[in-house]
């Protein structure tokens, strides 16, 4: 038969295991958040570059067919 002390010991072990798991998940989440922020910054830079290139291409003279065609 389980004594109250055995039950408390098992509960403490369970809590310790869950606390470790939560800490590991928190660390992984923090690492993934860094990756998301880096990706977002890269996307912002690429978007700015694309818009800049798009503006430059609008100012370019239109492409016309040569007169001999």
Description:
The protein has 69 residues and is mainly α. 81% of the residues lie in helices and 0% in strands. It has one helix spanning 4-59. The longest helix has 56 residues, at 4-59. The radius of gyration is 30 Å and the shape is rod-shaped. The termini are far apart. The mean pLDDT is 90.
Low-confidence runs (pLDDT<50, min 5 residues)?
A: none
Q: Helix fraction?
A: over 70%
Structural class: mainly alpha
- Rg, Å, rounded: 30 Å
What amount of the residues lies in strands? under 5%
Give the averaged pLDDT, no decimals. Answer: 90
CA(first)-CA(last) distance: 99 Å
Shape: rod-shaped
**Number of distinct helices:** 1
Name a few traits of the molecule:
69 residues; mainly alpha; 81% helix; rod-shaped
Secondary structure blueprint with pairings:
Layout: H1 4-59
Give the gist of this structure:
It is built from one helix and no strands. The chain is an all-alpha fold.
């Amino acid at each position: 038969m389980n004594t109250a002390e055995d039950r408390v010991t098992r509960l403490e072990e369970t809590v310790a295991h869950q606390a470790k798991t939560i800490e590991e998940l928190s660390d992984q989440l923090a690492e993934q958040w860094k990756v998301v922020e880096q990706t977002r910054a890269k996307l912002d830079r690429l978007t700015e570059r694309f818009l800049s290139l798009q503006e430059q291409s609008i100012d370019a003279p239109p492409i016309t067919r040569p007169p001999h065609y």
